[in-house]
Amino acid sequence: EKKKKNAELEKRNVFALLEETEEDEVEEEEQEEEQEEEQEEEQEKGENKEKEKEAKKEEKMEKVEKVLSEDEVRKKAEDMMDEYYICFEVEEIRFCLKEMGPSSCHPLVVFTAILSIFEKLKHVDKLNSLFKELHADKTISREHFQQGFVMFFKNIEDLMMDYPRASSIAAQFIGSAMVENIFDFEFLANETKELQLTRASLDLFLFTADWLREEKGEEVCKEKLSDGVVMKFVAADKRTNEFITSYLERKKLMNLKPLLLSEY
Q1: Which residue stretches does the UniProt record annotate as biased composition, category Acidic residues (predicted)?
Q2: How far apart are CA 115 and CA 137, in angstroms?
Q3: Which of the chain's ends, N or C, has fewer CB atoms near its CB within 10 Å?
């Protein structure tokens, strides 16, 4: 009987050992499976990151490919300004500018916006307000504003054929740009040298000075004017007080004489 009992105990011990061994093996297998799953997850994450990188590269490439042509920029800017003159939403303008892509298109946008005002003269103040905000928060840089105005100066003579009052109209947003320190009279003189013979350069100067005096006050006008600056807007053979005086009389701007000429 003792032998039988001992044999049974041995069997039980063997079975217990077998069960423990099986449990250990199952546990090891589970751990191996977990490790494999973790490795697979890590691998998937790595692959996903690579895919994301590739997708971003492709997106950048698409953006580069989608650089707008001048005609496309002009058309979008025209549509943008048409919309602005309805709702006057500056935030919408910022959104449109972002959609257009690289800031290199901004000078053409500024030029197109200036041209648009000749069809919407009652909204000159709104254009000035728009330019002020876009310049203040650097949505459009000072340099790009200047480039846009230069494009306009080069086209002013053509505009004068359709709009005889183009110079006096332009003076309103040129003067406003000066108040915002986008450029000054020295810049205007340098960029309109080619317009001296037709007197378009002098007209832009005189009407801008008059706008500053009327709208911003004589003190502001004086601050913007430097001694003898008027002579930089006329050809060398016309740089005399007599010529400037006669021109002021013709343009009915004699109120500017004390501000422009030291002796009169």
Answers
A1: 19-44
A2: 23
A3: N
Could you identify the residue written with the tokens 């058309």? 75
Q: pLDDT of 100-109, one tens digit each?
A: 989 999 999 9
pLDDT (tens digit per residue) in 165-186: 999 999 999 999 999 999 999 9
Q: What is the pLDDT of residue 40?
A: 78
* Cβ-defined contacts of 96-104 (< 8 Å, 24+): 97/134, 97/139, 97/140, 100/68, 100/73, 100/76, 101/63, 101/66, 101/67, 101/68, 102/67, 103/140, 103/141, 103/144
Least Cα distance to 88 among 119, 114, 124, 118 occurs for 124
User: What pTM was computed for the model?
Assistant: 0.74
The four Cα atoms 93, 128, 123, 206 give a dihedral, to 10 degrees, of -150
* pLDDT value at residue 64: 40
- 199-200-201 Cα angle (round to 5): 90
Answer whether 177's CB lies under 8 Å from 149's CB.
yes
Banded pLDDT at 44 (limits 50, 70, 90): confident
| 71-80 contact pairs (CB < 8 A, 24+) | 73/100, 73/105, 73/108, 73/109, 73/112, 74/108, 74/112, 76/100, 77/108, 77/109, 77/112, 77/113, 78/112, 78/116, 80/109
Nearest-angstrom CA–CA distance, 240 and 163? 29
